[in-house]
Design goal:
heterodimer, A: mainly alpha, two-stranded antiparallel ribbon, 11 helices, about 70% helix, B: alpha/beta, Rossmann fold, six-stranded mixed beta sheet, about 40% helix
């Protein structure tokens, strides 16, 4: 394999995995924007999404598209329940109790998954059984291509939905100024519920996309969630473009670091990038320095 | 009578902000609420629009008690609250802000919406010019115009404006006032105006109430209040004028 092919291979897989981080980061960013709270359970929601796909696809034997869509519906309902029982009761408190509640919920999800599915990793088949193809020495795994296509489609949807629909604008208004949104007659609680549902679905889709690549375990969400969190900080917390660019940056640095520096530290490189950002540009790529606007 | 408050008291946590406030606003009137900073003027508006639930008393709008109604439902009844500090949505464009202003109106067609937005651009030419600019890029005066125009997009029966003159240059204050008067005439909108700038508020309103430390201490027609020596001394700079003279 030529040096260029190795580079190409790592860039390809780095961007693809980065796409998954970007989806999770987008979910974290949207919730942060509309509630000022960081959802630390986002990674474990991803894990639940992967298990949902596992049950529907592998245990019930449903065809892929149906299993995928059904898992999205189930996780959407789960997102509503999550906001109703984790966020809503604490909505008028400061951010700290809510954050602690999301951490607690994440631990609960991990342990419930352990009780239900045990500690044996579960395998989920990829979307296409045929594997992939090789171009110029670079192997294009079809599952990675699926990840890229789905991520791109979701970010395009994100843009169209938030910028060009009335509901999207109401959700933006809620994120920008809740009191004013109320005075304009926007049902703020409902908009926040929608945000949680959508963010949960994004995380769950991320989990369904990586399920065939990694094994599905009850712990798979913690590293994914932390890397998505790192992606958010690098990109600029709460920024949609930042979630995308940050996610891909994390995916790339992880793949390239593992290939050229040391594979054992694969999981450490994203956090190295995070540390660099925290020291040099804590507001992230697209973030602005936090200040009150008069 | 359009709006009536009867013995309303409200507080923020343990701090009592208004006590036993009673006032009336009739249809088609411009009524102002004047007083110093912290007198409870904004709190009164917040109670009416549902942002703050009173501890005691009644708020009656068109014969219906609304003191326990949620803010998003009160807008639908026909009360539009343009809060202090303009509260323009910073990440949305001028046009999007205006569109959201009309979001409470069910069954408004796209064509009618466009027509009404165009009409706001006529009332506030700056907004027409800046229709695609994001809210945070507007100047203070432009944000104030947008706040009012957005409030009008709900086609309210009553428009409540909190300190529209705050932080604006005198010439802009004059513009805002003239527009307020025009709106009241043109749409038949009742206006409840909260102002620290008492002479300005009284100059365009029919009646006024004076608030001090959470209570209403005086009321009357704007003419009466303007000629009242106490009001003159406390709020219209009467004493300083005398000193200068």
């Amino acid at each position: 394999m030529s040096g260029l092919a190795i580079l190409g291979q790592n860039v390809f897989s780095g961007i693809a995995i980065g796409g998954v981080y970007a989806l999770l980061a987008l979910g974290i960013a949207l919730i942060y924007r509309s509630t000022n709270v960081t959802n630390f359970a986002q990674g474990d929601i991803t894990m639940l999404g992967a298990y949902a796909l596992y049950i529907l696809l592998e245990q019930l034997g449903l065809p892929y598209p149906i299993a995928f869509l059904l898992a999205i519906v189930v996780m959407g309902i789960f997102g509503w329940l999550f906001q109703r029982f984790v966020y809503y009761p604490l909505r008028n408190r400061s951010f700290l109790p809510v954050i602690i509640a999301t951490i607690g919920a994440g631990i609960l999800f991990q342990n419930v998954a352990l009780v239900v599915f045990g500690s044996i990793p579960r395998k989920v088949n990829p979307v296409f059984a045929s594997g992939g193809f090789t171009v110029g020495g670079v192997y294009f795994d079809l599952q990675y291509i699926v990840i890229l296509v789905v991520t791109a489609a979701l970010f395009v949807f994100q843009y169209l939905f938030f910028e060009h629909t009335s509901l999207g604008k109401k959700m933006q208004a809620t994120a920008q100024d809740k009191t004013m949104a109320q005075l304009l007659g926007i049902p703020v609680a409902l908009m926040i519920a929608f945000t949680f549902i959508y963010s949960t679905i994004l995380g769950a889709i991320g989990g369904m996309l990586v399920a065939p690549i990694y094994f599905v375990t009850n712990r798979m969400g913690s590293t994914l969630g932390l890397k998505a969190f790192a992606a958010c900080i690098c990109g600029g917390f709460g920024d949609v473009r930042g979630a995308l660019i940050g996610g891909i940056a994390i995916g790339l640095i992880e793949a390239l670091g593992a290939a050229y520096i040391a594979p054992v530290y694969k999981d450490a490189f994203p956090f190295l990038l995070l540390l660099v950002f925290l020291l040099v540009r804590p507001q992230g790529i697209f973030g602005e320095k936090v200040s009150e606007k008069a | 009578m359009m709006l009536e408050m009867k013995g309303v008291s409200a507080s923020y946590d343990a701090v009592q902000a208004i006590r036993d406030v009673s006032l009336e606003v009739n249809e088609g009137e411009i009524v102002c609420l004047i007083g110093a900073n912290g007198a409870g003027k904004s709190t009164t508006l917040k109670v009416i629009s549902g942002l703050l639930r009173p501890n005691a008393g009644e708020v009656i709008f068109e014969g219906k008690q609304i003191q326990k109604t949620k803010p998003e439902e009160i807008v639908r009844l026909g009360i539009s609250h343009v809060p202090e500090g303009r509260r323009v949505l910073p990440g949305l464009t001028v046009r999007e802000n205006l569109e959201l202003g009309a979001s409470v109106r069910k069954g408004l067609s796209k064509a009618d919406l466009n027509k009404e937005i165009e009409h706001q651009y006529e009332l506030f030419p700056d907004l027409g010019r800046l229709r695609n600019a994001l809210g945070w890029t507007l100047s203070g005066g432009q944000q104030q115009m947008l706040g009012i125009a957005r409030g009008l997009m709900a086609r309210p029966k009553m428009l409540m404006m909190d300190e529209p003159s705050l932080g604006l240059a005198p010439i802009i204050v004059k513009q805002v006032l003239e527009t307020t008067k025009r709106i009241s005439k043109e749409f038949g909108t009742t206006v409840l105006l909260v102002e620290q700038n008492a002479s300005m508020a009284l100059s365009i309103s029919n009646r006024g109430y004076v608030m001090e430390t959470g209570r209403i201490t005086m009321s009357g027609t704007s003419k009466e209040l303007l000629s009242n020596p106490q009001v003159n001394e406390a709020y219209l700079g009467g004493r300083s004028r005398k000193l200068k003279g």
